[in-house]
Design a protein that fits this description.
Helices cover about 30% and strands about 20% of the residues. The chain is of the alpha+beta class. Strand 3, helix 2 and strand 4 form a beta-alpha-beta unit. The longest helix is centred in the middle third of the chain and has 12 residues. The protein is globular. The termini are far apart. InterPro entries: Fe-S_Maturation_MIP18, FSCA_dom_sf, MIP18-like. This is Metal-sulfur cluster assembly factor.
Length: about 110
């Protein structure tokens, strides 16, 4: 069963996930809007990250999983990423900070 994270843990995990950077775009997964939800798997005592990618055919899931493990080290013992494809990601999910980062990298957004 997946339950909600405590608000303070949610904030801590979200902040840590800002260290996970999409290798193609150079912006973190939180500000890109790739994190759809965070939950806790009570049965396996693990964080569940509901995450998508900018495209379903992206070959970089291993890189993102490694970065996630590094970012969450010392915050949670275990996690798993639940790759989500619906609803599909779109640029409207990018935060204002993410838009600023993309503009700084030369993207017209």
């Amino acid at each position: 069963m997946v339950s909600s994270l405590a608000p303070e843990k949610f904030d801590e995990v979200t902040e840590a996930l800002k260290d996970v950077v999409d290798p193609e775009l150079g912006v973190n997964v939180v500000d890109l809007g790739l994190i759809y939800d965070l939950g806790w798997d009570d049965e396996h005592d693990a964080l569940v990250i509901h995450m998508t990618l900018t495209s379903a055919g992206c070959p970089l899931t291993d890189v993102l999983e490694e970065q996630t493990a590094e970012a969450l080290d010392g915050i949670v013992e275990q996690f798993r990423i639940n790759w989500v494809w619906m609803p599909p990601w779109g640029p409207e999910r990018i935060t204002d900070d993410g838009r600023d980062m993309m503009r700084a990298l030369g993207f017209a957004i």
